Amino acid sequence: RYGHSAVVLGKDVYLVGGYDDTSLDVFDTASLLWKTTENPSDIPEKIDSAAAIALKDRYVVLIGGFGFSLLRSCFIFDSLFNCWSKTAPSMIMNAGRVDHSAVVLDGKVVVHGGSGSTDRSTSIEFIKIQDLLEYAPLFFPLPPFYFNRILILGKDCGAITIQGNQNTSKRKRCDDE
């Protein structure tokens, strides 16, 4: 494997993509074992040489890279629900790039350098984390294990009590039709 990206969420290391690869692999640093039984969701398309960051100890964000062409978009993986989403066209970077870096600073993702379509890039782009997470995966209906815990309100406030049922729903990527 090469051309992949890696980030840390909690005690797990997430390895994402790579040359001609859509896989997402998770290494548990506590047990020193690969998590193979959880079958994390693969990236929706092949991506290599992307920058990756972790957000809110829950999301893996792939920024740019190379798929079938230079990518200007971001993919967001929700580790809680095992689901990918892609940012909307309004959120794309000014230029596609590979072999670049990204860091989180003061509520923004700072993307720098790398190579563009013709030469090395010296540009810096800023992506607001709040704007980026608007494209994090959403579920409807909510998975039962989550729905069962949403809320149970007291009768005194006149609110509706919500209780989940035991039926399981199929998870979907938020861009599935």
TrEMBL record:
- Keywords assigned: Kelch repeat, Repeat
Superkingdom, taxonomy of origin: Eukaryota
Family matches, as InterPro entries: Kelch-typ_b-propeller
* Gene3D superfamilies assigned: Kelch-type beta propeller (2.120.10.80)
Q: Which PANTHER family match?
A: ACYL-COA-BINDING DOMAIN-CONTAINING PROTEIN 5 (PTHR46093), FIBRONECTIN TYPE-III DOMAIN-CONTAINING PROTEIN (PTHR46093:SF18)
Q: What is this protein called?
A: Uncharacterized protein
Species of origin: Leptocylindrus danicus
Q: What is the lineage of its organism?
A: Eukaryota, Sar, Stramenopiles, Ochrophyta, Bacillariophyta
